[in-house]
Amino acid sequence: MAPKLTIDGLEGRAPKSLKHARSILSSALVLAQKKLSAIEKNFYGSKHAKVELGKKARLITKVMKQVNLSWLTEPIHLDRLAARAIFSDDDDGLTLVIKQIRDFYDKTWKAVPADLQPVIDRIQLVLRYLRLYCPPLYNPSTDPHIQTAKDYELKYKTMTADIKKYLDHVCQLYEKFQKGQMYMDEMSQGTRELAMKLEAEDCPFVFAFHEACECLREAMRCEEDWLVVSNEYKFFLESEANDLQDTKSSLQQKVRRKQDEYNKQHYRLTTLGTELDNQKSEQAVLQSKEMELIVRQESLLARVAEFRLDFDIKEFRLAEVKRTTNPKTATLSELDTLNKLVEEVKLEGRILQDIHKELNLIKLKLTQLTEKQQHYQKLTLNYEQLNRHVKLLDRSYLSTSKELHQNTHTIEHIKYMVQYLDTPDTAQQIFLELPRRREALGMSRSHGLNLQSTPDDVLDKVFDLLSQTLGLKWVQMYRDLPFYPERGSRTIEEDIVRIQSECVRDSINKEIRKSLDRWRRFHTRAKASDLLPVLRKMGEYDILAALETVVHPPRAKTPVVERFPTFLEASLVPYYQQVSRYDHLRHSKKASQTPALPPIAKSSVPRVRA
Fold first, then answer.
1. What is the CA angle 113-114-118, rounded to 5?
2. What backbone torsions phi and psi does residue 179 show, to the nearest 5 degrees?
3. What is the dotted CATH code of the domain comprising 457-551?
4. What angle do CA 498, 473, 445 make, to 5 degrees?
5. Count of beta carbons in the 10 Å neighbourhood of residue 443
6. pTM (2 decimals)?
7. Most exposed: 131, 165, 338, 395, by fewest CB within 10 Å?
């Protein structure tokens, strides 16, 4: 049976799992605490450390008052205490007390930090393995935001710094006292309270060993907290993953709603754009008709003015002739003149009526043309408003999709972390210094999550090839690309202008890639085969040939490795190959078609060693 693994054996053997490593570190801390308690008991000679410390403190403060010494913060003060005791009235008694103080002084600085060094070494060893086997597995600069991991990573750094601070403080106590820089203000809260209670703030070296023990206990307490947090780390990660899963469900519903709303409004925009394109082609015809009607109206108005003047004159003449002519006494010529004037007035009246009818008809047609123009302007205004609304929906959809993608990526990362913490081989990987983190967790494409797109790695490779080879012809290609649902030519032209404006400072490759990503987004079930007819129409046969190698890459030929018996010498390999080939052909019934093997001279065949 293998011996039980301890912290001293972690240098040469890996623990069974991370849980086993934490158990070993917890046991090491328990032993370190017992070791510290034994050292403290040996130092004070009793279990009641504070009682013994109080006796020493009261004795020293009493002597300091007798010899009128205010401070005992550095070695020179102790010499002054001994010098003043010589001239005291109670020389023998004080000399004995000074000797006890000297002994306590020597005992203190022998114990700090020499006697405590095994405990310090054990705490440092536990800290080393805590950092090794209880890592946060989180990098805030590259990993997604995980609040639990971020808090643990912050606690990881804070506790590491606190433990090092406590250990450095213990190791620097003697040096500070020698330099006269030991003050009660720099000691822990418990030591200060004890010094105030004993009224011994002026002799801090008395509490040096107590301060060292308290700092070591605080360091071990930090390591115990670290182990507790590390034990619960996986459960907190799973809890956060469950919360993120609930958020993911609501985000998916939100994305679907926004996608449906976007598709509905985009369909309206496409329909409206098609109608607007049709009416735009009619506007030139309508404008020419309007000009013809206006010219005809002006000519008719001129004729009306001319005929009206002639009609008024003839009507006036007719009235005069009727007034001066008596039908009973009038001659035939007068009656003939009267009848002729009546006919002319009637004729010109009918002509004026016809012109007025034509003018009314022209006015009606002009009104209809004006209504059509107003309708076209209204359609243009509605198209612009709807286009702005669709863009807002697009941005909102992309933002929500990005949030959903980040949420999914975070859940995947947490699952990986939990799986890593649960795997028994993790401790072995850490011990062997194998890579313990994935650098990537399946990030999606740069265009983000798109419910209309088909995840196709081949399509990405095709896009990369086209962005490097197509050049300025991408505009023509984008106009000819198929879209389902259909996009109007006006919308396609707006897409081209938008892509060019967004990539004005980027390379042409970026423009091509952005246009292809946009096509993939707005074309349902986009495939690489949809690009082939467009490239064939453009005459880009060299690009078509290159795409064929990307879509259908040639299979790599696996080299045939011939194996020879291990006992065969190198000089016999050619003969062994010929014999093997002959046996293979004979087995396949082709030996009769195969030339005979050349004769092998006996002298040329080396002997095979036994």
1. 95
2. -90, 0
3. 1.10.533.10
4. 60
5. 9
6. 0.56
7. 395
